[in-house]
Design brief:
alpha/beta, Pantoate--beta-alanine Ligase, Chain: A,domain 2, Rossmann fold, 6-stranded parallel beta sheet, 273 residues, homodimer
Amino acid sequence: MKIIKNIEELREVINNYYSLNKIIAFVPTMGSLHDGHLSLIRYAKETADISVVSIFVNKTQFNDANDFTNYPRDLDNDIDKLSKLKPDIIFVPNDSEIYNKDFAIKISVNKFHDCLCGSSRIGHFDGVALIIIKLFNLIKPHKAIFGEKDYQQTLIIKKLVKDLNFDINIIVQPTYREPSGLAMSSRNLRLSANGKKLAFAIYKTLNEIKTDPSTLEQKKFELLDMGFEKIDYLEIRDEDDLKLINNINSAQNKRIFIAIYLEGIRLIDNLKI
Amino acid sequence: MKIIKNIEELREVINNYYSLNKIIAFVPTMGSLHDGHLSLIRYAKETADISVVSIFVNKTQFNDANDFTNYPRDLDNDIDKLSKLKPDIIFVPNDSEIYNKDFAIKISVNKFHDCLCGSSRIGHFDGVALIIIKLFNLIKPHKAIFGEKDYQQTLIIKKLVKDLNFDINIIVQPTYREPSGLAMSSRNLRLSANGKKLAFAIYKTLNEIKTDPSTLEQKKFELLDMGFEKIDYLEIRDEDDLKLINNINSAQNKRIFIAIYLEGIRLIDNLKI
């Protein structure tokens, strides 16, 4: 397990793997690793010769400066967790290594972007696309592994890979959940004990809507009554093109999406119907 | 010499070169090959194991639909010329192979873009950046070779490579010229015999300005008197940041840039002072 902070050193190591014809799997993270991340890394290790994990809190994908500042960071703890799994490389660049002072490139992904987290977090997915391109070019993976909790993000990254012709296999793994059903997220760390107890209602509600989609509007009131502060969205959409589903009995592949605030923290989840 | 039209076949061949640890050099072109292109391809062959030439008239970099339509295309002639040099691969994709019908990515390069060809051809360099990213991801070259005639383009591509962390060496080769001094360009094919005779005045003028920069404004009148229709720009700029030079005696690295119309055709050139 090699911790690399610097691009030049990373390049040397990656190019050496290339000269040995190694297959590289990559898991990008923003740190504050939880069991969801670890399951992705385990998958990477099992399905490739070399596993690379990046830890980088990417400012360009934060539309809210406070959210960026408050995003949990604990590198020692992350490295401690990784030392049990031993990925081959942990890439931990600092900000100035990734964004030089006259950085000048902007990416826009004009599909899947104008709904769900795309409408509530303006510019978020463009920032994601930018850092993903950079990390793909740095790590040159054969496959990259993402969690399904960020479902919209996985669609955007697949679109990016297709449209820009990256020769990278995008693999989406199921959302990893607490025993209560709460989707694992670094943001959960910021919930109080009480908040965490309440938060399990998110997944429970998704399951109830899955059973009876006609209850969707009523569920919004119930969540607010429970103590959630605000619902960003709670919607059923086509899982291929993210269009809103008007007729719940249609033959489309459907998925329920939620973003909701609790204790000032924005939590997301989704569930296939 | 293998002519490849399809992305899947290209990937297979490129990945095979990778497994053999071959160094790949890439020369992107829009076809209508002239001796300038051929000199870049010769350089690619001499300095790498594998040379790849792409021929693709990229619509996203044309701000003027007529210019795109009228851009010279002669694939048989191109292949004939290449068959003397025998690059390993000629990649000739068609439009739909490169831009799928719901293509959704836009790139903006916000440096070096708001002067010279960037101001007269709005969106041109964003289109160049887009196709270059795609071709880099398809061909995965270790080095890519460009001509200095498109000096501003070479700065933008270097910036793109730096900011997006492509592991590709960008090599800029001197402008290849006709015996008269006229910079080789596919657009020269559209000049009449008379036009071609007149066009040599472009390079002659740049040299005269190099000798005595104070004549620059007067040279504009002289060019128009000779029969050129319009001068897009004739300027001396810093060759590192493209800022206009106010004091010609400054210590900056200076370069003269010209874009000028003759017989309805836009011709460019530049010369280091």
